[in-house]
Hints:
The chain is an alpha/beta fold. Among the domains are: 4-129 and 259-354, P-loop containing nucleotide triphosphate hydrolases (Rossmann fold), CATH 3.40.50; 138-251, no CATH class; 463-629, Orthogonal Bundle (PCRA, domain 4); 857-900; 905-1104, Alpha-Beta Complex (Lambda Exonuclease, Chain A), CATH 3.90.320.
Amino acid sequence: MTSYEAIMRAVNPAFPPTGEQRLVIESDAPAILVVAGAGSGKTATMANRIAYHVARGAVRPDEVLGLTFTRKAAGELALRVESSLAAVRRAGLMPAAPEDGRARRSILERATVSTYNAFASDIAQAHGMLVGGDPSARLITEAERWQVMSDVVASFSVDPDVAGTASPARIVEVSLALAAGLIDNGLTVDRARDFFHREAAAFRRLAADRRRFSGMPEVSRDWSKIKDTSFSLQIACLPIVEAYFERKRSEGIVEFADQVATAAALVRAHPAIGRDIAARYRLVLLDEYQDTSVGQAEFLTSALAPEGMPGRSVCAVGDPNQAIYGWRGASSNALADFARRFGARLGGTTQLSLSTSFRSDRAILDAANAVASGLKAEGVEVKRLAARTGAGPGRVAEVRAESRDDSYRAVARRIREVTSEASAEGRQAEIAVLCRKRSYMDPMAESLRELGVPYEIVGGESLVMRPEILTVRAALGVAVNPARNDLLLRLLTLWGIGASDLRALHAWSVELARKQTERTGLDPRSEASLVEALADLPEGCRFTVPARERLTAVAAILERLRSCVHLPLDELIAHCVSILGLEVASAGSQRVKTSIDSFIALGRDYQDQHPGSGLAEFAAWLDMVDRHEHGGEGESGVDELPVDDVDVHPGVVQIMTVHAAKGLEWRDLVAVPELVEGQFAPRESGLSSWVSDAGIFPFPLRRDAAHLPAFRAADHEGKIEAGQAYHRFLREDLPEHESREARRLAYVAFTRPTEELLLAGYSRLNGRDVARSAFLEDVRRRTAAVPAAGAASGSPEESPAPGPPDPAAPGSAEGGSSPSSGPSLAPGCTPRGRDEQPGAVPDYSGRPLWPTDVLRVPSAARLAEGRDGRAGTRAESRADRAHAVRMLIAEKVEGAREHTRRRPYMTATEVVHMAEDPEGFLAQQRRPIPRRPSRAARTGTELHARIAEFYERPATLDVDAVLSAAEQPVDQDAVTREEERRMLGVFEASRWAALSPLAIEEGLAVVVGGRIVRCTVDAVFDTSAQPDLPDVTIVDWKTGRRPDAAGLASRELQLAIYRIAWAKAHGTPLQSVGACFVYLRDGGTLMAGDLDEQQIAARMDELSR
């Protein structure tokens, strides 16, 4: 039998597993619980475990199942597993293939790696009809849930005496919460109805108790706030929930929760299905198990550990300190629950640990351990994180400014410093700002924007909420619904209509409405229409001349849009973009162009999925998406989060929620803002519960009720006893529960960086002193904090740190750093002299307008004289001057960037374009010209998709990879279907079709010569057994003609980038990676790309000059 040492040497000779990892890898216990701390190498350990047991002959690859939560994590695990098994094969350590043909083939098959939800969905689709499921049902999004429920509510008559004053939107919200709770917890509507009636009756009984809470004022105050309207509204919404369930059945639609519920019902009702699944998979890995809900755990137990089936091993890996999805039914008790459930089925549970962090340096681990010290996991031993061998000292620093705005500015200045330090080393910095709430993202982005630091908001800003898309939505919304004055105001503000002219327009709309009422004799409308006033502007001097011109232009735009609302949605959106002039306004902004293209595709997809729908339905759906799919503070989705495929992008500061950052790491710096009391801190007040908020599903009805704060009115006989119990629930139990959730979130945030953690806060807010977050105090108290130089006298939070003044922010200084031997908790910056708090603004202007004032040009005479026009005030004149200065600076910066032909990142295809035609590439960047769609492009796309399907992988082809004029036939040489079939036949007959791919259509990013280059490789094969090829070969499929010698030189650059990207991403020596073009017209293969990183960097530098 092959030894452990030999197998590990083959898999990764440079990094042998630790002692803890070896125990996990070798264990063959039936039920294994692995408590894996942040950054402890669990993915590599799981892949090595699979390789070890396969090499020993204990299981075949096709008997292995790995489950995790996101598609990205599943892809990474699958790649690690394939790479480890390929290494074992190359070393000749695979067990001998059996004689049986079927078993021989199974040796070559892959392990199954999937998401939890996809695993449940496959079972539900395969067997769902046994429990009344619809295998052809369509999965709907969160926004579609709201839309369907809104339709149900609109057609439903709700008794106002029961529902109280609840608005239709509130009824929709409560009904959806009830529906989700019933599905997730396996309850019937009748069971919920009985519960609510019992609780309502109990509260009425207790309310009749005349005894007073003598000497208990706080108890009395809390009890007096309980209203029975919460129960009344929930009871009134239950018939709506029943109608919603019926609507989903009749329309053949399901949501994520339905798939898990159907799969769970199947394995419960038909145990043979569970036995069949368990017989198929003898080695099971359950990743991120702390994020599973009780319902998922019950399903997994029935499907993977049926009673009376020994001979298998199920390993759950997780970290109770990272259980941050309590809002969807997961809890830190999931791991202890695994030990109980699977241990009972499989004969006991073995607990192991992974506690060495391979991610973070020592000071950061000290901070993480400090915040984790306040967490206790029931029934599970959790070790402190330990530093890896060779770990650096690390740095933990604090920004403690006087005001909130200064805190964000200090963070931005430190980010700029780290960015400059990395640039001096010839690389791009990896930096993130992790926010507890999405509302923190805008001030952080604004502070970075002030300093010219490139950033991206990840996940906090959905497509439909981006400024340029909000502008398009406003125009389309007014065109289809003239009553939307709120949307028109956005357009008018965009066109630079001043406050006085807006007042004049409103007065004119009121006058028009009054005249119409007098003329028709109908009741006056509740709100005058600004759109009608805009279409019929009065003569005279009500408006200034510039305002009249702009108002007339807006009216003309709306009239043009109304004349084409019958067009297909994608054409209508494109037409709207053209009419608004956004194509011109977005010149040079790839992000804006991408947003517009994505929005056009969104309209096309919506119409494809909703035949017969038009602009009105699309606009209503967008409003639902805006409000309910990405608009709240929490995350949504049962299996996949809104941010599923986040990657770390060097050179760009990534701003995201802590939830979205889970599983990621940044080398240089992670900043965590708002670490002050009442923000990112333990929650002690202002908490809602199911007793007072009908939108919260009752804790007593949840499957994990044993781990949640408990209160039930029906459990108490008298009012005094019930009041005291409710007071404890509201003031002690619930805050403790919510504070633990927040502490786990802080732990996740603090464990993301490698070298530096920046903890930010401030001392005053809204004129009041504000204390540090308890999480930050834990770090200060439990680590060997060293005051920054110059802070020895005076309190740290008030003493300014020394250092050169920042020219970008006069009057302020950033906190200094301590010696590198320990963490630095130093003062952040001196006060600016006043708190700059954002004031309240109307909803339509609460988001950035884009493009900024498309028509207003500062008037020199007006600026000189400082006069008020009716189109604006002196404040507006100053704004014009400031805007002009900003635009000139931005124009100069943009011009410099264009001159040097540098961007935050490039694609490999753009590198080829730059090499083939430098001047043409620059012209295309300055003024992009859309390419005419070609038959060749479509052929390339379709063939790539067919090849991906051949390997049972999804195609993610970057279409511009097949648009090179040098390689593709022109349109009049259209490729026939017969030629397409012939090219596919060439592929199927090639050596590549018989090889096992390591990756298909995989996106990669690499830093070459200080530039970020992104690419998508068509296919990567394990060619270690091919004598004429290196261990790994990257293949780029080509449907066009072979290039000439000049074209080959530029294409070789593309393959060279692919080789380096793969080698760096997977730790493979560059000499072991080859690359080639495969020409599907003639089956020819052209090996190329034999350049090293220095040669590529030199070539790109030459092209950039």
